[in-house]
Amino acid sequence: AQSVSQHNHHVILSEAASLELGCNYSYGGTVNLFWYVQYPGQHLQLLLKYFSGDPLVKGIKGFEAEFIKSKFSFNLRKPSVQWSDTAEYFCAVNARNQAGTALIFGKGTTLSVSS
Amino acid sequence: ETGVTQSPTHLIKTRGQQVTLRCSSQSGHNTVSWYQQALGQGPQFIFQYYREEENGRGNFPPRFSGLQFPNYSSELNVNALELDDSALYLCASSLAGNNEQFFGPGTRLTVL
Fold first, then answer.
1. Is B36's Cβ below 8 Å from some Cβ in A?
2. Do the Cβ atoms of A55 and A68 come closer than 8 Å?
């Protein structure tokens, strides 16, 4: 069965600090990978996705993630965080080219950015 | 383009009751997935509907059931509610063959 592990439960940073949130998945086949963000009081929004091609993907709001197949990882990065990045971040995976595929989510990482 | 909408926003029920949650998919999307997000957890897949039929199911008991209508909107029904069913229920829509899902704001269910 597929699973997703997010290593950091709660990360606290000051504005302008760099961010890296870890994500590892377990699945033997070809996957699609996603990072979603949930701002306080708002619904889940897609930050970025990887389907194929360049393993370094860029998303909205200056976020990027790198897919490392050999490590089954898809870590999220941002060079300089802002107070407005305070949110819950979820890594998710689903199996490519299968009908009825669910998104399997990690437990999430809460990011708190102080100004 | 209208996004995914869900109703109601909040709901309070007591143990043993039944509840129906509703979801309207994003314009043009024909696939709807439902997720349960307990407090402090990531969303967990309940099931997915495509062409009005269940097209995949997670590890949830049969008292969780659903429907999809010809206009692609969907309902989630939960019978015999338990305290542990208290959660945020998320609906996501997508286009068949495209794995990107778009989420609605969710329905917060509290079971007392």
1. no
2. yes
B43 burial class (0-12, 13-18, 19+ CB within 10 angstroms)? buried
Contact A105 B55 (CB under 8 A): no
CB A25 within 8 A of CB A5: yes
Residue B36 is which amino acid? Q
Q: How many residues does chain B have?
A: 112
Per-residue pLDDT reduced to its tens digit, A54-105: 999 999 999 999 999 999 999 999 999 999 999 999 999 987 656 557 899 9
**A8 vs B: CB within 8 A:** no
Residue-wise pLDDT tens digits, B11-64? 999 999 999 999 999 988 999 999 999 998 999 999 999 989 998 898 999 999
Nearest to A102 among B33, B40, B104 (CB): B33
- Judge contact between A21 and A76, C-beta under 8 A: yes
**C-alpha span between B48 and B44 (Å, rounded):** 12
Burial B85-107 (b: 16+ CB within 10 A, else e): bbbbbbbbbbeeeebebbbbbbb
In B, minimum Cα distance to A32 occurs at B99
CA–CA separation, B112 and B105 (whole Å): 22
